[in-house]
Amino acid sequence: MNKFLNDESRKEIKNDFKTVKISVHKLRPAPDKENFYHLDDAEIENTARSIELVGLQQNTVVKPIAGTDEYEVIAGHKRRCAVLKLVSEGKTEYEMMPCKVEESGDNIRNELILLFTNSTQRDRTDYEKMLEMKRVRELLTEYQKDKKLPGKKQDIIASLLNTNKTKVGTLSNIEKNLNENFMEEYAAGNISTSTANKVAGLDDKKQNALYESYKQTGELTANAVEDMEEIKEPDCIVEEELEGQMDIKDFPECLPKAANNEVLQDNSPAEPNKPESDDYTEQVNEVFAKDTLKKLIKLCRFITEAEALELETLAAKCEERAGKENE
């Protein structure tokens, strides 16, 4: 861990910088994978007014863009946006920003240290922490190609991002398993980390079904996720006949006499995958119906008005059939 964060390492990074003034119009934001922090208008406005009051208290960290006279911002995106706002208001005295130009070729180590700095100097949402974690993992994987990590990757990620291994595990589960629709809701702050983690534990089919319900109600509770967790796919009642599978009817000499006579009475071939007994079919239907009704009872709060009317119609039909059977 000290390889990334100790004082000597930081000193080496600082020695790779030179400070110059650069026009804000020549500064470009970093790619999305490196610049994933949300900036709202209020933050930019507050920073602009602070710069007006006390000036720029920190240098923006940049690196040259090859083949141009422009620079990519590594740290200081909010300051850049605030200065652009001031210049657009006609306050051109702020156009030239003091910048530290990073000339070192060790971009992986530098970005890791800058991610660590952000984790200690700014408030981030859990979604932003998740993106930080993903980026740190990518950087460490790249780092491992040439050098040995000084410890376990999970421990390094937790230390760099100023959090604990449990949090890293939770965010990792969300990042890897939450589907696209719920990820958008998580990014927007519409669902909590706890709920997102529970949803990420469901398979794709259940996540999609849960999202359809969420779209209708606009709510997603822990109970709803737990109910979805309990739903199991029905077991297949009739197994598909395998290629080359033999039928006992083809070998009557192997059967006891009574069973032999009973089997040979039916000379007509049975339809594949269809139970031969009506009583058996009724039992299977009853099992499926009861299982489905149990699921509906658990998920009744998600039934729409139109679906409720369909259920009422179905119940009336069943009552009518029961009445005819009792006549």
Automatic annotation (TrEMBL):
Q: Pfam families, from UniProt?
A: ParB_N (PF02195)
- UniProt record, GO biological process: chromosome segregation
Question: Which SUPFAM superfamilies did the record assign?
Answer: ParB/Sulfiredoxin
Which terms in the GO cellular component ontology are assigned? chromosome
Domain ParB-like N-terminal, first and last residues per copy:
20-118
Q: What is this protein called?
A: ParB N-terminal domain-containing protein
Per the UniProt entry, what species is this protein from, by scientific name? Aminipila terrae
Lineage of the source organism? Answer: Bacteria, Bacillati, Bacillota, Clostridia, Peptostreptococcales
